[in-house]
Design brief:
527 residues, alpha+beta, Nucleotidyltransferase, domain 5, Transferase(Phosphotransferase), domain 1, 3 domains, binds threonylcarbamoyladenylate, binds adenosine-5'-triphosphate, binds fe (ii) ion
Length: 527
């Protein structure tokens, strides 16, 4: 390790987690950037072949940017997540360079780098981030020194899904841009829509699209409308839940004009700001690693050689964000402020002892899909609120229902997200335990949807609820809640334990469901 870091100069950044080998130099601004993308001759990306490609072009890519450097202060590299063989190739090059130049190494989390270059390029301070790429689909927000995952895909990344779909129709790789082009010529087609709280799942949608016998343009159109509406819905839910007012789109799929348009419309309608970095900084690139390496270096974060092994499953929330001095805007605002609340789906208005919950049309959503979701969810909500009540779960009493509106009892109490005590979590555990024991799954178990009144946790917002005694549905239900807890509280472990106590008390099948939750959690930690 070098004695001291040169006080000025550039950080060299190396990216190569998957398809792109890219090197860049960054000081106060981008100084140089060069990339050598790998495109598989057939099929998708083969990790070992990609790594061979990376090894063969690495020297040239670095040689293209290095002459632009006056003084290299550090070598930053993508330490993970990504494909093991590719990561190892890049790490080897980075170590050799750092030794040769006698400068420190900086190990950058690839997902954090997507977010940081996005903040740099757009000037956003504290956004909710939709990170939509090949391997990842996550909704991320910053709180208390970490980037937290509010929600993410429970199976595959959206980009890989689009690529897989394209492959099944013998379309070239990457599939995303091809699907986008074809979708412009097609019209809407109904496909499965899967959202669970702030999480989502794409594999059912991709399989259905692959098996459809409708014209390819229509399938592409339907696929985009469905997949992107799911992404925008969970982003809006995170925005409403976290009380932030900026949305940043990053990752390769962020290049899609339709996805950008939908997010922009959602933000306009909510009064939030929306931005997307220019194309160069959206997909994998060396600039994001060089830039993030630089801000990490300035915060004193370097990586001893002995600890520089790659981390294929490195999660964004494992990184201690030492370079941000702010804490991030904590969950704020009052429930039903001014007698009105706007969730991700509905407008809720106070009416004396009642509230009126009306599901409003979403401008970003295809009209047919919009209508279908509003009707399905209003119907599910009224039916399952009542069923849960009959099973002894505290829920609001319903007074009147129309196709898009429910008039229900107003629950006067503390919304759990503003009252996260162990005692209240134990009460929430009892409520969810009773619900699961009755064969009902909530589908949107966030702390915004629980109100503590008279020592009891009342469950609201049953729009995504369904009847199910499947272990998987229960596991996912719990996972959605735990993820929300983890993303908004620093005392996650204790709160979770308190919840588990209440849950186990009320539900004989608790142990099995909790075991499945852990399995679901591990599945999210892919790559
Ligand atoms: C871990 C890392 O290696 C990985 N990288 C990655 O996925 O590459 P990225 O450049 O962020 O995104 C590539 C994906 O972005 C999609 N894509 C590119 N242009 C697109 C477009 N116009 N519409 C939809 N998808 C698009 C491609 O189909 C491909 O699946 C990641 O960030 O998850
Ligand atoms: N019966 C009720 N009594 C009191 N407050 C309520 C009631 N129903 C809803 N609210 C308030 O309105 C907010 C939004 O309601 P709800 O969660 O039902 O809407 P949504 O649009 O489905 O939300 P989401 O963003 O979770 O999809 C709640 O977080 C809560 O603060
Ligand atoms: Fe990426």
């Amino acid at each position: 390790m070098p004695e001291s870091i040169p006080p000025s100069g550039q950080v060299l950044g190396l990216e190569g987690t998957a398809w792109n080998v890219s090197a860049a130099l960054f000081d106060d601004d981008l100084v140089a950037l060069h990339s050598a993308p790998y495109s598989p001759p057939t099929g998708g990306i083969h990790p070992r072949e990609a790594a061979q490609h990376h090894a063969s072009v690495m020297k040239d890519v670095i040689a293209r940017v290095l002459p632009e450097a006056e003084q290299v202060r550090a070598v930053a590299f993508s330490q993970g997540p990504g494909l093991g063989p590719c990561l190892r190739t890049v790490a080897t090059a980075a170590r050799a360079l750092a030794l040769a130049l006698d400068v420190p190494l900086v190990g950058v989390n690839h997902c954090v780098a997507h977010v940081e270059i996005g903040r740099w390029a757009t000037g956003f301070a504290d956004p909710i981030v939709l990170y939509a790429s090949g391997a990842n689909t996550q909704v991320i927000g910053y709180l208390n020194g970490r980037y937290r995952i509010f929600g993410e895909t429970l199976d595959i990344g959206i980009g890989n899904g689009l690529d897989k779909f394209a492959r099944s129709h013998d379309l070239p790789h990457p599939g995303g841009p091809v699907v986008e082009r074809l979708a412009r010529e097609g019209s809407y087609l109904e496909l499965p829509y899967t959202v669970k709280g702030m999480d989502l799942a794409f594999s059912g949608l991709i399989s259905a699209a692959q098996e459809s016998s409708s014209p390819l343009e229509d399938v592409c159109h339907g696929l985009q409308e469905t997949a992107f509406a799911m992404c925008v819905e969970v982003t809006e839910r995170a925005l409403a839940h976290a009380g932030k007012d900026e949305v940043l789109l990053v990752g390769g799929v962020g290049a899609n004009a339709r996805l950008q348009e939908m997010l922009r419309e959602m933000c306009e309608d909510r009064g939030a700001a929306f931005a997307v970095p220019e194309r160069t900084y959206l997909g994998d690139n060396g600039a994001m690693i060089a830039y993030t390496g630089r801000i990490m270096l300035e915060a004193g974060v370097t990586l001893p050689l002995a600890e520089s092994q790659v981390r294929p499953g490195y999660r964004v929330d494992e990184v201690e964000v030492a370079w941000r001095s702010d804490l991030g805007e904590a969950v704020r605002g009052e429930p039903l402020e001014g007698g009105r609340a706007q969730g991700a789906e509905a407008v809720v208005e106070e009416a004396g002892e009642f509230i009126v919950k009306r599901r409003v049309g979403k401008r970003y959503r295809n009209e047919a899909l919009d209508r279908r979701l509003i009707i399905e969810r209003t119907r599910a909500e009224s039916r399952l609120l009542a069923a849960a009540r009959r099973a002894g779960v505290a829920t609001p009493v319903i007074r009147e229902i129309t196709a898009d509106t429910i008039l229900m009892e107003r629950i006067k109490g503390d919304v759990l997200k503003y009252a996260m005590t162990e005692e209240n979590l134990a009460r929430a555990g009892v409520a969810v335990g009773r619900l699961h024991a009755a064969g009902i799954v909530h589908g949107d178990l966030t702390t915004s949807n629980m109100i503590v009144r008279d020592g009891q946790c009342v469950l609201i917002d049953f729009g995504l609820a369904h009847v199910s005694s499947e272990l998987e549905s229960r596991g996912v239900d719990l996972h959605v809640l735990f993820q929300t807890l983890e993303s908004t509280s620093d005392s996650f472990a204790a709160l979770r334990e308190a919840f588990v106590e209440g849950y186990a008390e009320a539900f004989p099948g608790a142990e099995e469901a909790l075991a499945r939750e852990r399995e679901v959690e591990m599945r999210g930690r892919y790559l």
